[in-house]
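Sanity check record (used in CI):
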Amino acid sequence: MRGRTWLGAALVLGAQLRALWLAAAVEVHTAKEVVAVNGTNQRLKCTFSSSSPVSQQLSVSWNFQPEDLSSHEPVFYYLKEPYKPPSGRFKERVTWDGNIERNDVSIIIWNLQPSDNGTFTCQVTNWPDVYGTIGEVRLRVVQKVNFSEIHFLAVAIGSASVLMIIVVTAVIICRQHRRKARDKRIEVADTEL
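Expected output for MPZL2 protein:
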């Protein structure tokens, strides 16, 4: 009978330890959506919290799911040091911008393109916290305004400003001319009297 009691106690203790293990998971925090202009660089912020101190075994995985829902692509990996992707669309276009001591595992994507529209995932494991949430950032790359449109707007605003200055100057000159003419008429009338 004593063996069964010991076995029951071990099962209860095991269930409690498992519950504590799951409660001690890594929590990952990201912006839900980021909008960036085509051709620019964008920092994808990802931070984490863990019930355990940051360990030497901490690892970070960034992956990408395009909008067309084709296969996931690796973007970046960190384990003791940053590892850039050796191939793929993000080769030579992604850099580490995190600080492990501040629980920041962010990256920067360079020269954004419309094909970068999609969802980036950030996953952190911090031994013994190997379970946890996965952060997701939906990136939307929008077209920048063409130079011709900006140029046209600047010319229109500049022309309107110059036209206003000319009109105001003409009104002031006309008023001064009328005032001088009126003063001269009054002076002539006074001298005649």
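Residues 47 and 104 are 4 Å apart (CA to CA). If this sentence no longer matches the regenerated tokens, the check is flagged for review.
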